[in-house]
């Protein structure tokens, strides 16, 4: 009679950490559910959704720059680097979710799955995406203020939006990441891991994986 192969067992320390993470996440979820409106949490979810991010970024790229001049203008380079980072994030999150395969919280309801790996919880793709965007805005803050906010969107250079743009994006990223636990989509460790990954992605794009450097690889 054939026997099933032994299943890999996690270490006791890892199991205790996962159990603690599960308990804390459930406590936060049940504590804030009666307080925060579902519509607010859902709006935060949509604001960091890749199905919204990619069309908006592509629309900005195509409406601000003629196609023939896409790689040559400061605005197009900025948006191309943002797209490169977003694709890099999508790849890393997909691979990590597939390898770890941590189930989502049992109380996660009414969630639309874009990809098969979205069944899995670790790490949070929303947290990584918004943290990458916040890190990207930090490193490219000068270009974003000058070329996007002032020249294209016509904000005044002394306006609060231009002056505190990076701070506002950072706050949005933090609140959106926290909302993933409060909406029941993720555990706390999923969100922390996703945020750390997103910050790392922003650094990699700024230092290495940007259009300027990639274009030199094919010369």
Automatic annotation (TrEMBL):
InterPro entries, per the entry: PAP2/HPO, PAP2/HPO_sf
Coiled-coil positions: none
Superkingdom: Eukaryota
Keyword Transmembrane helix: yes
Domain Phosphatidic acid phosphatase type 2/haloperoxidase, first and last residues per copy: 77-206
Gene Ontology MF: a single term: sphingosine-1-phosphate phosphatase activity
Residues spanning the membrane: 52-70, 77-100, 152-175, 187-209
Keywords, comma-separated and alphabetical: Membrane, Transmembrane, Transmembrane helix
Name of the protein in its database record: Lipid phosphate phosphatase beta
Species of the source: Sesamum alatum
């Amino acid at each position: 009679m054939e026997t099933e192969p032994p299943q890999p067992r996690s270490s006791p320390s890892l199991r205790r950490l996962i159990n603690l993470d599960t308990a804390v996440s459930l406590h936060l979820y049940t504590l804030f559910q009666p307080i925060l409106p579902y519509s607010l949490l859902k709006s935060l979810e949509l604001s960091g959704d890749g199905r919204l991010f990619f069309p908006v970024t592509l629309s900005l790229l195509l409406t601000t720059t003629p196609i023939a001049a896409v790689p040559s203008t400061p605005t197009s380079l900025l948006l191309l680097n943002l797209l490169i980072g977003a694709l890099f994030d999508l790849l890393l999150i997909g691979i990590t979710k597939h390898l770890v395969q941590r189930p989502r919280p049992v109380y996660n309801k009414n969630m639309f799955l874009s990809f098969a790996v979205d069944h899995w919880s670790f790490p949070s793709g929303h947290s990584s995406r918004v943290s990458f965007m916040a890190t990207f805005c930090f490193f490219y803050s000068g270009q974003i203020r000058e070329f996007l906010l002032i020249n294209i969107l016509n904000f005044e250079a002394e306006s609060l939006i231009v002056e505190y743009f990076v701070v506002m994006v950072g706050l949005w990223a933090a609140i959106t990441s926290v909302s993933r636990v409060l909406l029941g989509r993720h555990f706390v460790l999923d969100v922390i891991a996703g945020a750390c990954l997103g910050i790392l992605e922003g650094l990699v794009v700024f230092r290495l994986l940007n259009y300027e450097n990639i274009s030199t690889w094919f010369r």
